[in-house]
Amino acid sequence: MREGEMDPELYDFRPYRDRPVLEWPDGKKVAVWISPNIEFYELDPPANPHRKSWTKPHPDVVGYSHRDFGNRVGHWRMAEMMSKHGFPGSVSLSVAMCQHLPEVVADANARGWEFFSHGIYNTRYSYGMDEAQERALIEDSIRTVREATGQVIKGWLAPALTHTPRTLDLIAEYGLSYTCDLYHDDQPGEVHVKTGRLISMPYSLEVNDHYGFFVYNMSPREYADTLIRQYQRLADEGGTVMCIPLHAYLIGQPHRIGPFEDVLKHIAADGRAWITRSGDIADHYMQQVPA
Amino acid sequence: MTLDSAYLDYPLRKAGMDHDHYSWSNLFAREPIAWPSGQGVAVAVIINLEWFPIVPEDKPFRAPGHMVTPYPDYRHYTAREYGTRVGFYRMLDALMRVRARASVAVNGAIAERYPQIISDIIEAGHEIVAHSTDMNGTIASGLPEADERALIAASLGTLERVSGTRPRGWMSIARSQSFNTPRLLAEAGLAYMCDWVNDELPYRFATGAGSLVNVPINHELSDRQIVTVQQNSADSYVQQMQDAHTLLAGEAVRSGGRMLPLNITPYVMGLPYRIGAFERLLAYLVAQPDTAFHTVGEIADALGE
Predict the structure, then answer these.
(1) Is residue B239 over pLDDT 70?
(2) What pTM did the predictor assign?
(3) Do residues A40 and A121 touch, judged by C-beta distance below 8 A?
(4) By the 8 A CB rule, do B81 and B266 touch?
């Protein structure tokens, strides 16, 4: 990006109308990927001068234990349901999970899920990092996921969505192919970087379960209905990507997982969805569309 | 501002949790738990019965539901009192109709001021859980340890004196603790607490002064979260609890006992236009197979040693 400029020039302006048709495998209309955020929040993290980790003095018992619910309870409920209906996950991973709770990481790996980095912990932020620190974070992510799962990460979702002006250039330099941090489109697209090739992968804040429940205050059934509407529209338009970003501590709650299952059933039965992983979407797009 | 190099040090990055209170455990890989009723789903009704002084102290923080306007805040003071005088009795009657025993998380000040309520709770067979002194009795880091110890002792002492029984369980205001709280609760002889929401079954929690049981009273399922914070209707709340029950009943068949905590607030769910929905929920739950009402204390005891 152009640091300090009013327009960061992250990408070219390309209006939605009159674009070349984007084809998905087998004539499918919409690439659907589910992104479970598998995160570790620290009970007593060090302070980052640019952002507080917890809104309350440590220990933030509800904040911390709510997140911990995801790894003890929610993940297993959510993962079983995804596998039952044929949905793999593309995991936004706090990579320290590989050390703290390798059982959860191994379960996701065994289900054929993809991993990309969401930082070390969701309580450590990139704000204020110098280039050497940010390189250490990226190298740690690549190494940790490879050692724990055998996978080479292709994507990035910044830890707690905290960035520096260098992040996109650096992840491209390290050979990553997609970022989930840009929300300007329903299709993948090129991102301006100094070296290599980086695309933006449509993720979503709007239909993220966190937004659904805590920004828009939806009931579980309203959230399920929202996802179905989002899916219907993107499938009608075609050549689109739909991401369902989830947190096991939210969607894995007992009053929410049942209505969510109706969404999976709906998409699986519809027939127009390429139900896949973010890395597969990136590979397919980059092959089909020259840089 | 550049970050200190220590920001990229991770001294606790190792197997397990980043504290010593409990080990990580997968809910679905545990020995099944059995409730005293032998039923699969234990419904735990826990009512927060609270007294809000009209002068908030904000030490260490102002409790949710506390005064809002400049002094004197008649509207919030009296609206909370409405819950205690009226809404709570609607709840007691609703529980009596379905013969359900519940747990009531009571401020010490309620016992001090309204001993009649304590008699009515005991007469109905409900359990009293200690819930601080009054709604100025919040806990968080920054509260001196001696003050916190005194607060816990005052709450337990008052409730024991008025009810005749020392409470075995504790629920903090807003489930907020300091780093000292679990140890101080164990030192005070409490058997269980209700503050950590990381699980759906009771589990053992180490404190440095012996262990106690944590019974997770899921805040996500509370009327405060669903109705007050998320502003869903009482009907939607009922639907959500029914959906939760369906899910848990299915899991209970495969994995052993499950718990559905119904954490409700008299000044929220006890209002005339909401209580009917809650009564409908109770009638629904009492009619479900493999389901029984249990107190939080019974649920804590089911864990065993």
Answers:
(1) yes
(2) 0.97
(3) yes
(4) no
Residue A56: which of B140, B239, B240 has the nearest Cβ? B140
Give A-chain residues touching B61 at CB under 8 angstroms. Answer: 56
A130, A221, A253 ranked by CB distance to B239: nearest: A221
B221 to A257: CB separation less than 8 angstroms, yes or no = no
Instruction: Please list every residue in chain A whose beta carbon sits closer than 8 Å to the beta carbon of residue B236.
Output: 219, 221
Among residues A108, A117, A40, A101, the alpha carbon closest in space to that of A79 is found at: A108
pLDDT of residue B305: 73
Nearest CA-CA partner of A203 in A179, A235, A220 = A179
Residue B264: CB partners within 8 Å, gap ≥ 6? B45, B46, B47, B48, B91, B222, B223, B270, B278
In chain A, the residue whose alpha carbon lies closest to the alpha carbon of B242 is A255
Query: Within a 10 A sphere around the Cβ of A37, how many other Cβ atoms?
Result: 23
**What residue ranges define each of the domains in chain B, with the CATH number in brackets?**
34-301 (3.20.20.370)
User: Which chain A residues have a beta carbon less than 8 Å from that of B60?
Assistant: 57
Give the helix/strand (H/E) hosting B29.
none
Q: Contact at 8 Å (CB) between A124 and B7? A: yes
The candidate with the shortest Cα–Cα distance to B33, out of B214, B246, B300, is B300
| DSSP assigned state of B84 | I
CB contact under 8 A, A217 and B229: yes
Q: Give the pair of three-digit tokens for residue B201.
A: 């079954």
- What's the maximum distance between 2 C-alpha atoms anywhere in chain A? 53
What is the torsional sign of CA B163, B166, B170, B174?
positive
Compute the distance between CA of residue B290 and CA of residue B245 in angstroms, rounded to an integer.
11
The pLDDT-based confidence of B1 (bands split at 50, 70, 90) is low
- For A127, the token pair is 């704000």
Reduced to 3 states (helix: H, G, I; strand: E, B; else coil), residue B195 is: coil
Other Cβ atoms less than 10 A from the Cβ of B286: the count is 15
E-assigned strand segments in A29-160:
30-38, 90-93, 114-117, 155-156
Do β-strands B211-214 and B203-206 pair in parallel, antiparallel, or remain unpaired? Answer: antiparallel
ipTM of the complex: 0.98
Whether A197 and A283 have beta carbons less than 8 Å apart is answered as no
What is the structure's pLDDT at B304?
84
